[in-house]
Amino acid sequence: MGVASGGRARRGTDTPSLSASMRDKADNRGPRDFHPCWVGAEALKAIVRKTYPLNIEGKNRDRVLDAIKHDIRKYVKRQRRVALPAGVDFWDFDCKFGTSKDDATPVHFGELMGLIDGVAKEGGAAFYVELLAKNGHRKAKPAGSTDSAPAEQP
Question: How much is the pTM?
Answer without folding.
Answer: 0.61
